[in-house]
Amino acid sequence: MLGIALGVTALITVLSVMNGFEQELRERILGMAAHATVTTYGGRLEDWQSVEQLVQQHDEVIAAAPYIRGESMLSAGKQVSGAIIRGIMPDAEGTVSDVIAHIRDGSVRHLKPGDYGIILGKELAYALGVGLGDPVTVVSPRIMVGPVGVLPRLRRFTVVGVFEVGMYEYDRGVALVHMEDAARLFQMDDDITGVRLKLADLFRAPAVAAELGRQLGSDYLVSDWTRQHANFFRAVKTEKRVMFIILTLIIAVAAFNIVSTLVMVVADKRSDIAILRTLGAAPRTIMMVFVIQGAIIGVLGTFLGVVGGVALALNVETLVSAIEAFFNVQFLAPDVYYISKVPSELHWDDVGTMSAVALVLSLLATLYPAWRAARTHPVEALRYE
Fold this sequence. Notes:
The chain is an alpha+beta fold. The protein folds into 2 domains: 2-24 and 232-382, no CATH class; 34-228, no CATH class. It is 53% helix and 22% strand. It has helices at 2-30, 48-56, 90-93, 122-128, 168-173, 179-185, 205-216, 225-228, 230-268, 270-278, 283-327, 348-374, 378-382; strands spanning 36-40, 61-76, 79-88, 103-106, 117-121, 135-146, 149-163, 174-178, 194-199, 220-224. A 6-stranded mixed β-barrel has the order 2-3-8-5-7-6. β6 (135-146) and β7 form a beta hairpin. The chain is elongated, with a radius of gyration of 31 Å.
């Protein structure tokens, strides 16, 4: 019983922690990435106002915001770094992503057209060695032809903010500017790169993206967040599946203990079984006795495991913090890991699946001992009594 309880508790707790990490990473990714994006294959979206109005008519689209995206090189003093420049509309960006809420220093209100302000990711600002008010030179891959020949397009920007979403990919390689400044830098004129969308249900993004793609036609490319980070979330799901299989082996070991226990009980009670048989008990009745005995072990063990696992999963963050404080250790150092706490998210469908697996394994473990007991021959069992 304790073996099954420990196995179920471990399975619920570990999968809840993995769900917590997955949710935490998903939220950090969606802090910069929109639920869905409408672009064109050429990278220039013309007449984007009509596209924005069209997609906003969809019932599941909450908000839409235009953007311009381009690769560039940033330099400050002797430090040089490549980055993705994202031109945004400050008033609309907050409706489709959480990046505005993650600005640590400065404010998005300082992004004004013509002022050439720039908001850098924390790691990017650290790599360039700049802070608020410092100048940064942005080198565009677009070239301009002048009297002295072909020259890269340069523009001096002023750092007006620093954001930190907690994902190195974004904190190290993304910078935000006003969309009109980005249009001048990348020579986009009145065109943009695309429109970013926020949906009512982020898990419905693939279906909504497919519907919008059919409405807009083949000239437009509608992508969603699951497709943009498909490999990452596929790896997380694979890891969860492997951990489920590994931890299920703990329950399987406990179920094997049920087999050995019931086999010993059958060997010890052979004479009693024989007497019951001589009194008229059918083999099926004898078999049900041991099936019920093993089922009770499985049900009680699973119940205890579910109670312990749910209690531990709901309080794992508090428990880990208490252990760290008591032993003066830190399992996830904030200077090494972006997620410095152990998150946990309990999914009741996982609890149901694990309970069903434990019960099925427990019932299967009773079949062989019960079959052995039912085959006990009264004469053979009582020969030496």
